[in-house]
From TrEMBL:
It comes from the Bacteria. Its EC number is 1.2.1.27. Keywords: NAD, Oxidoreductase. It comes from Shinella lacus. InterPro entries: Ald_DH/histidinol_DH, Ald_DH_C, Ald_DH_CS_CYS, Ald_DH_N, Aldehyde_DH_dom, MeMal-semiAld_DH. It is an enzyme of class 1 (oxidoreductase). Residues 16-478 form the Aldehyde dehydrogenase domain. PANTHER family: MALONATE-SEMIALDEHYDE DEHYDROGENASE (PTHR43866). CDD domains: ALDH_F6_MMSDH. This is methylmalonate-semialdehyde dehydrogenase (CoA acylating).
Amino acid sequence: MYEIGHFIHGKKVAGTSGRTANVFNPATGEVQATVALANDADLQAAIDSALSAQPKWAATNPQRRARVFMKFVELLNQNMDELAVLISREHGKTVEDSKGDVIRGLEVCEFVIGIPHLSKSEFTEGAGPNIDMYSIRQPVGIGAGITPFNFPGMIPMWMFAPAIACGNAFILKPSERDPSLPIRLAELMIEAGLPAGILNVVNGDKAAVDGILAHPDIAAVSFVGSTPIARYVYGTAAANGKRAQCFGGAKNHMIIMPDADLDQAANALMGAGYGSAGERCMAISVAVPVGEETANRLIEKLTPMIESLRIGPYTDDKADMGPVVTKEAQARILSLIDKGVEEGANLVVDGRGFKLQGYEDGYFVGGCLFDNVTPDMEIYKTEIFGPVLSVVRAKNYEEALDLPMKHEYGNGVAIYTRDGDAARDFASRINIGMVGVNVPIPVPLAYHSFGGWKSSSFGDLNQHGTDSIKFWTRTKTITSRWPSGIKDGAEFVMPTMK
Ligand code: NAD
């Protein structure tokens, strides 16, 4: 058993609330740690620390701020194995998946090393007689991030790296399910040279989130998690006058055209549907083969691959996927699968009974494949967030396109085809934020930006890329007149009096 507190003003602290939550080992079902749940006093301590440190950090020149991230990237690489295990033992995913989690965050830290260039401003010489006009971007002050359990490394870094590089102080409220890694990241930031108070980690639940949303000293809030909470955080933050970007759930489709390379498509579906036990916001959860023959061939290829998935604890380095995160998540996924059967979908591969010897109390769910799913079914409408792939058969391209177009969510989508015309038409017409052409999980790289449409995202600026620099800064535009007229004799009259 170990205890996880908060990270405030450069060091770990226990917190004062007396409230804690259990942190489980998803592979065994055992409680392995407790995490402190912050109260208002804990949050205030983090804010006091941030307020004391931020002005000096904002006045630190951007090259020096960038150097902290250069060192931080080096430390992430040096400590990669340890960091990945910290994630896996609380999240449950394989160590390889956890390394990916750290690496996708690390890439955004590399991106913000460019902050001297990224934060350069615009200047117009001679906007009028002797008048220059320029816009500068200044940090918002204190930013906050509220993050989900499924990427405890990547998503905190997507938020705090640009926020801090822009000269802000940052308060991170990670998921209470896997809180160890964010605390370790904060320690490494201090080791990399970040002054105390610029990155504080406050662990907690709804009370901590509500404290952040109500606090007058927090200027901007970034949230990633489920859609109902994203909607709530966005509405509350906006009502309290804060800038907010909130990213929610997903139901990502992959269209498989009759001309697609089916081996490639089936392989892609295995990684995108079952990797990380389907607990990714960019997981593919709906496959849409076009035409009966494509559908039959696809099911034929997928079935043995799903049946032979190797499922195990993170300590099994050959496992393809691990357990899901909590007992509640497991129960929810299993009940949705039951519902799909009740509704008449054809459960071709049934993973409900999966048990692993020695890990009988772990939160495992075997890979599941549904065929003949229809858009009115609960399993189609709801984000299952587990290792469950639904096949919806479409007669033609237009019918296939219509499915993601009409779905509530709009995070990611993919098309598999050899036809450039179809791919181009699809990319142009689809109402979804991130599109893959023969790429199953089209997560944009750090220098582009990440964000969905429809109920997958609230707010207009995305994560990382140049959007993130805009989100964590505000514009000030200065109009100046030099010389002031001294050379020709000063004028002290209103311009309108001329
Ligand atoms: P979640 O919504 O349960 O929790 C996210 C955060 O909100 C956590 O920090 C949690 O403590 C807090 N929270 C939970 N309930 C709250 C409440 N009632 N009031 C205030 N705060 C609350 O999400 P999760 O289960 O941790 O993560 C999975 C979800 O996140 C999935 O829906 C997934 O699609 C989504 N997700 C989206 C993206 C994206 O970029 N769009 C990325 C990753 C995950």
